[in-house]
Each structure stands twice: as structure tokens, then as C-alpha cells.
Design goal:
The protein has eleven helices and no strands. The protein is globular and about 65 Å long. It is an all-alpha fold.
Length: 282
């Protein structure tokens, strides 16, 4: 791998973690501040992805080009997820929800689009893995993702539409006590969130095992993907009355974009394969 390619991969690997740190430590910033910074970052990511993946994306081998397409489908959503660093985490008060309603709608619309793109990428990946003879783990991973996606879309619509409209109504009507129907919906979507997050992590675990079985990724990387995914799945379904350290961990793994970090890293890994050798995955 050349120095520009190595630098590109290093930068791209850090992206989701840096975005999370900025969002959780700095919080919400004004759009006039974070949007120009995000646009510069977006351009840098595009250049880095091209440098890392140009071998597979321009290959004459259709199989290798498809692997490049798979990688792009799981990487491209993160070009847009990084704008959440400026938005910060979701608001914790009704006035803040109302004041940032448009940003929240954009946030969850981007997450829905990203979830669809990543699921499409994994569907193509499952097909390639089946062609290499690995059917069990890729099928289980794809099944988990196929169940998770509709729940994820429903959950993101709840946060981006239902909550925004409800909080706007509560604020306008000066309702102090939350209606019973609202409390029931909140409890229902707490369950839905835990299930879909766990399924996304389990899907990543299935694909990690499948990629190791066909020899595309080294066992050490696959074991890391597998362990992180299984821990994320377990933490996401822990009850809300867990002890404080576990409650914090449960909150972090359940942040909507976090289950997509492992697929993103897998996408970078797929692009990187072409830079080590053109024949390793042919």
C-alpha cells in the first residue's frame, strides 16, 4: 500500500470515532458553523475513498468492481452521518426539540437512507459469499439485517416525525402531563429500538464469520468484528435498570449510527484488499 493509500485508510478509519467524540463532547453547534466544516470534511472523505478504492472501482474484473460497489454502499452513508458531529446528540428537552425540528428530521432521514444503502451492500456481499461456497453465516447475517431494516425505518420515523410533531404539539398547547398514548408509544419503541439494534449487530457478526470462512479477511480482524458485534447485541437488549456503567454502555451501543460502524470498517477492509494484491479475492 502506498503512503497516500495508507494515510487515506487511517483517516477514514478514525472518522466515525472522531465524529462520535465531537458530537458527545461539544454537543449542538449552529448550522452556520458546522455545515462549512462538514462540507470540507466531506470533500476530504471523497478524496480518501477514491485513493483507497480506485484499484477495485476501475478494475476490469467485474467481480472486483462489484466488491468496490459493495464497499461504497456501506461507506457512503458515513459521508453524511458525520454531519451529526455538528448536530450533537438528540435534544433532551422539548423546547430544544422544537427549536431544532428541521435538523432532527434531516438526521433521521439520513439514517433511514443510510440503513437502506448498507443493507443493499450487505445483500450484494451475501451473494458473493454464497458464490464462494459460504452459505450459512452470510444467510443468517442477511436474514438478521432484513428483519432489522423495517424496524429501523419505523424507529427512525418515530424519532424524526412522531416525536417532533408530538413535542411541537405539547409545546404549543402547554401540556405539562404526557398523555397515556404517548407514554405507551414511547415504551413500545423502546422495545423496537433494542430489537433492531441487536439484529444489526448480529448481522455484522454473521458477516464477520462468513468473511473469515472464505478467507477474505484475516482471522484476527474477523474475531474483533465478531466480539464487538456480539457485545453490542447483548448490551442493546439489557434492561433499562442495569447498573450505571452498563447503562452508559447500553446507551452508546444503541446510538442509531453506531451499529453501522462495523459494516463501515468492513467496507474499508474490502477496498484495502485491492491495494494489497489484485488477485487475493479473485
Amino acid at each position: 500500500m502506498t503512503n497516500p493509500q495508507a494515510l487515506s485508510r487511517f483517516y477514514l478509519t478514525l472518522v466515525p470515532f472522531l465524529a462520535a467524540i465531537v458530537a458527545l463532547t461539544i454537543g449542538h453547534s449552529k448550522p452556520q458553523l458546522y455545515l462549512p466544516i462538514w462540507l470540507v470534511h466531506l470533500l476530504l472523505m471523497v478524496v480518501a475513498v477514491w485513493r483507497l478504492g480506485k484499484n477495485s472501482l476501475t478494475s476490469l474484473d467485474p467481480q472486483q468492481r462489484q466488491r468496490g460497489t459493495i464497499a461504497l454502499l456501506v461507506i457512503i452513508p458515513w459521508l453524511f452521518f458525520t454531519v451529526f458531529a455538528g448536530m450533537g446528540p438528540p435534544p433532551t428537552s422539548i423546547p430544544d426539540w422544537v427549536a431544532t425540528a428541521t435538523e432532527q428530521q434531516i438526521r433521521y432521514a439520513l439514517l433511514i437512507a443510510g440503513g437502506i444503502s448498507i443493507t443493499a451492500g450487505f445483500a450484494l456481499l451475501a451473494n458473493q459469499l454464497r458464490q464462494r461456497g459460504e452459505k450459512t453465516y452470510s444467510l443468517l447475517g442477511l436474514l438478521a439485517m432484513g428483519i432489522a431494516l423495517p424496524l429501523f425505518i419505523l424507529n427512525m420515523a418515530y424519532w424524526g416525525s412522531f416525536l417532533v410533531e408530538s413535542f411541537t404539539h405539547f409545546s404549543a398547547a402547554s401540556i405539562a402531563r404526557r398523555p397515556d398514548w404517548y407514554l405507551a408509544m414511547r415504551a413500545l419503541f423502546s422495545w423496537i429500538s433494542g430489537i433492531e439494534v441487536a439484529l444489526f449487530y448480529l448481522a455484522s457478526a454473521g458477516f464477520a464469520q462468513s468473511l473469515q470462512s472464505v478467507g477474505w479477511f484475516k482471522p484476527r480482524a474477523c474475531r474483533l468484528y465478531l466480539i464487538v458485534s456480539l457485545v453490542g447485541a447483548l448490551l442493546s437488549v439489557l434492561p433499562s435498570f442495569s447498573v450505571e456503567p452498563l447503562a452508559i454502555a447500553t446507551y452508546l451501543v444503541s446510538i442509531p449510527a453506531f451499529p453501522f460502524i462495523i459494516p463501515y470498517l468492513m467496507g474499508l477492509h474490502l477496498l484495502n484488499l485491492a491495494n494489497r494484491t489484485r488477485t487475493i479475492v479473485t
